[in-house]
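Look at one record.

>
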Amino acid sequence: MNSKTHLGHQAKKRFGQNFLHNDSVISDIVDAINPEPGENLIEIGPGLGALTEPVIERAGKLSVVELDRDLAHRLRHHPFLAPKLTIFETDALKFDFAQLVTDKEKPLRIFGNLPYNISTPLIFHLLTFKDEVQDMHFMLQKEVVDRMAAGPNSKTFGRLSIMTQYQCQVIPVMEIGPEAFKPAPKVDSAIVRLIPHKVIKNPVKDIEALNTVCLSAFNQRRKTLRNTFKKLINVEQLNALGIDETLRPENLSIDDFIKLANFITDNPPEKEVTTKKTKRHMATKKERADSEGTSSEDINSEESNAEGNSSEENN
């Protein structure tokens, strides 16, 4: 049998599908999620139901977001699962998760085996609903989880670390090898738990300004702050904020980035007027990063482990 076929379904490369099949790993993941009856549980990319079925056994019902119409069809006609599922056949990157909040006393508990090729933009999309979320549990490429949890003075510390940790508590839960999937991916995986902060102790004035500062910093992470931020803030202004211009972006704390974001919110840089024509079809990764709202390090990571542009990788 084709190694990409599992339970009669051919894994689709464009959807980045890798199906969980190790019962022990599945049990450990469900234990980590700890679903309870009456909770507002949402699974992204249920696929063949590896996590779906044991979660429903504990919780009784579940909403799922699935892009693959063949897999959505299977779920709708599943003799046991179908009556207990609310199925949204759509792209999770475009889905309004807030519509699932019908009772403020029952915040969202979101989980899933996310597609590694679009995991970063999907995480950023989900963070826009953080005020409606109790927690999130995701299977991701281990490298991505490492970056999410990284601290300053680390080569893995970057935009994803800052934007995630500013909004959530990031807890790596467990690591999972390629052998737990079919077909087996070429990278190790990990489960991460994200718990949105109920109160942010040092709130930024504008979350988009924080994102802008991070993009500027980590698109040129080898340069010193003097050069990295020259279009946003000058050396004298950096010094006035108590920031050493000879440091690199990875040496700053999250509070430093908040300080910089608040400064450019209060003192927006003048927009440059450019007359230079660019060849749109020759866009660099950095230009793509700026236009897509993701960093070039994220694009490199996503390109390294999968192809396609779907928003569902299925269990």
